[in-house]
Q: What sequence folds into this?
């Protein structure tokens, strides 16, 4: 039986040969270690195929491109708020939230109630007819955004949102050249695969990078410039000293010069008009790339430069939106910018398939230059859920949870960095946290895959689900539902520490 | 207040200028006309914004690309099986099913129950963990398909499905050239906009048609070849006689010659290898294009030819799948072919956002050549709904309803064609029906937009919602939920006839 696992590949090389495993003979869960905080939720009685039946289906009926975490993939059967339960009834603290998607909690009562109420009323008509929910939702969602970002188009995923934003940028400016960062992730359609800046996520296909430039990533930890004052984070423990003072940031300057190189050598900005850029895509904090933060003034100046050259600026808030970064509702607010287009997905629907593109009325208008349609986008179920998620974020004070617990976690993890040679970097904001694992602090060489996986698996065995990412597969990603408590955080910290110790890390 | 309506444009020209309307001063619904079949369902008490509030939101918060049907757009607030209710409580027979999406009925009890049950269990984890539902669904869905089509990747829309199928075809064959029909519709991402063969649905963007050929549409009614024996339909009333006999079809030959022209002049098939085609996309019956059917032997021979040239054949079953065509579960079965890739959406989820790409294990494997991911695809909610839709189709005998009621409708509509000069063509299979409206039978000039709209609006006023499509906006599309009764059909026929008479058509 072969299962394709998302392995920590050394040097970013995908190694399908290394990803099969024998399901029998792997380690079994242990119940040693810290106690999960108590939970009064009583799991439902649910029936499901056995693990072996499921594996059989997986190997014969599902596309082998489906990748799973862990040597013996976890079999999740139900969830409640920050907890998940596997097929044996074991409870886990979910610190990855289905890849930053379950924003307010698994099966959140308010969101579930909204869906339960809507499902007897109306599921779908398409937008050739009007229906109430999309309008109520459009009002509520755009309330959360600054002027002039008040015009929304609903789609079904982050990929669809970024694909549409690529179109809008090109149509509005009349230009073709798009910029995005190396190490970015913006989706998996043929077009968005181009702006996604990770070779491991690009198929060998004609034209996917056409008129797209993946520019140097301003990564203060691993990039050519960086210091210990670059980031907008409660912790600055990346181990690169600098003598910058008084708001000065040499890394910011250096990376902006590199942007300028691309503009000068690879785009047509030298021509008389000088306004030949279509757009610039940036995640406010890189998600898939491992909670990567840019030097804090970079994005504001890059946006200014791109606009000088005729381009529009697109904030990809698929992971950073909806209070995730704590201090702000939107990640871009942490950069003191107002983008021209904002793309959203994941946390917007707490697991329901929703995506959205919000822009200015002026830019939105370009979409009328041809017929455009999206069958499911903004359907009554999705809209009812989306509204309830906005409510839950507010009522449950999720943004405050992100800020408080996130800052606490970052502080504690920064202390771990002092204790463990294998923790190279701790970064992020709110509940968008990255812990970059290395062989040793001096070399910054990514931690060997085997060791990385062992720490990760041990956390899982002790009941903690961590995310993993980065092109080298060596970054732990901590992005739980925004309903975790201080006790959950302490449990997670204890487990992580034990796993590090156990593996002699 | 401006509302963008999907107007019947003459000659396929999109005229945004003609699409605004004054909301006051339009006709109001009349209650004259045939009686809707009785329905024991008691509508819910639901609250919603007033019509004017909703319009205000629409004009300020929603992207102006949202197009609506009718001069005064309908405001739908709830639905039950084949019926919809507007903001005044008026009931309508839904003969368009949210664009062929509500397959088994609005808020179908079995499908609603499945969603209700799942929403307290698990919404989402992504597929980095295993969860039961996607496996149960993969088993059930692939059961419905012939060998070797047994390997599924779940996505969120038809656009995502076709975008992925484009990738698979190119990766598997190592070729770039894709073929699709003029008058086809395959989605709205930057890539699928290329294979979509309708200029009104293509933005002026770089590269969207790259390595794509929209080949001549083998349309027996409006194309250069056609006769009264071409189609796989219970009715052959297109008004073009032919002397074909004994299984011979000159139209089929003619259109295949035209395909050969493209292969010869526009692709690289002349090179030594002679195998330079990546793939060929075909809806089994064109949906957006107006229930357009090809000469019945065409697709089988085209598939054979494309395969000779190294390409794979993709059936877009977004509209024709799941029993819609009556005689078969899949539209491609009506062409006696087994495609290499099948794309699905719409009816698959009865309104829930689901898409899928089913292919052979051999082709599926190409997706492992890079990382690939889809956050929501195959999530537990979607999978639970998808399974329930398969069950409902079976238990409610939807395929039989499609065949019986569809054939009845086609027969009666064919009679109307004899009575009304403005009905140029009646075509389709099962509950996938097109009625092409013309100025007069001899010229086949599309019916003037004003007249078309008047008939359509009068049907609406009498409680019947018809679809509309085709690049000239002159085709009524009849694709109701597959739970309609003979009484519903009779009501619809009476209403349509009255509307035609009233407008002197």
A:
């Amino acid at each position: 039986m072969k299962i394709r696992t998302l392995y920590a590949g050394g040097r970013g090389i995908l190694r399908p040969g290394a990803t099969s495993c024998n399901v029998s003979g792997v380690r079994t869960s242990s119940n040693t270690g810290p106690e999960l905080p108590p939970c009064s939720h009583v799991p439902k009685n649910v029936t499901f195929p056995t693990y072996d039946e499921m594996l059989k289906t997986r190997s014969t009926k599902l596309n082998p491109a489906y990748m799973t975490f862990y040597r013996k993939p976890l079999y999740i059967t139900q969830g409640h708020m920050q907890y998940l339960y596997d097929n044996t009834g074991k409870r886990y603290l979910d610190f990855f939230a289905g890849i930053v998607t379950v924003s307010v909690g698994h099966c959140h009562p308010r969101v579930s109630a909204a869906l339960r109420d809507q499902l007897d009323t109306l599921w779908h008509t398409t937008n050739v007819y009007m229906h109430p929910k999309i309008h109520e939702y459009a009002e509520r969602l755009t309330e959360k955004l600054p002027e002039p970002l008040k015009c929304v188009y609903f789609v079904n995923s982050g990929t669809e949102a970024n694909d549409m934003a690529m179109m809008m940028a090109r149509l509005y400016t009349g230009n073709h050249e798009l910029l995005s960062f190396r190490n970015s992730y913006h989706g998996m359609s043929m077009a968005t695969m181009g702006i996604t800046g990770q070779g491991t996520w690009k198929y060998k296909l004609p034209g996917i990078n056409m008129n797209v430039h993946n520019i140097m990533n301003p990564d203060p930890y691993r990039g050519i410039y960086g210091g210990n004052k670059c980031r907008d984070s409660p912790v600055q423990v990346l181990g690169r000293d600098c003598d910058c003072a008084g708001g000065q940031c040499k890394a910011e300057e250096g990376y902006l010069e590199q942007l300028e190189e691309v503009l000068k050598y690879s785009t047509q900005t030298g021509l008389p008009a000088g306004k030949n850029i279509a757009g610039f895509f940036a995640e406010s904090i890189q998600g898939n790339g491992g909670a990567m933060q840019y030097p804090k003034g970079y994005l504001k100046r890059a946006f200014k430069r791109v606009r000088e050259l005729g381009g529009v600026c697109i904030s990809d808030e698929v992971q950073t939106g909806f209070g995730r970064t704590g201090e702000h509702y939107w990640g871009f607010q942490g950069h003191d910018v107002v983008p021209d287009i904002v793309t959203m997905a994941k946390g917007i629907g707490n697991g329901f398939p929703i995506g959205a593109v919000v822009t200015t009325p002026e830019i939105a208008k370009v979409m009328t230059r041809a017929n455009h349609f999206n069958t499911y986008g903004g359907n009554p179920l999705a809209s009812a859920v989306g509204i309830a998620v906005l409510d839950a974020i507010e009522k449950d004070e999720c943004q405050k949870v992100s800020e408080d617990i996130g800052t606490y976690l970052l502080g504690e993890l920064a202390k771990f960095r002092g204790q463990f040679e294998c923790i190279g970097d701790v970064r992020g904001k709110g509940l968008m946290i990255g812990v970059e694992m290395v062989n040793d602090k001096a070399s910054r060489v990514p931690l060997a895959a085997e060791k990385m996986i062992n720490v990760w698996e041990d956390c899982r065995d002790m009941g903690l689900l961590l995310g993993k990412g980065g092109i080298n597969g060596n970054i732990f990603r901590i992005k739980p539902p925004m309903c975790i408590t201080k006790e959950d955080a302490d449990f997670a910290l204890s487990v992580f520490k034990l796993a590090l110790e156990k593996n002699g890390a």
In short: The two ends of chain A are 32 Å apart (CA to CA). The longest strand of chain A covers residues 277-283.
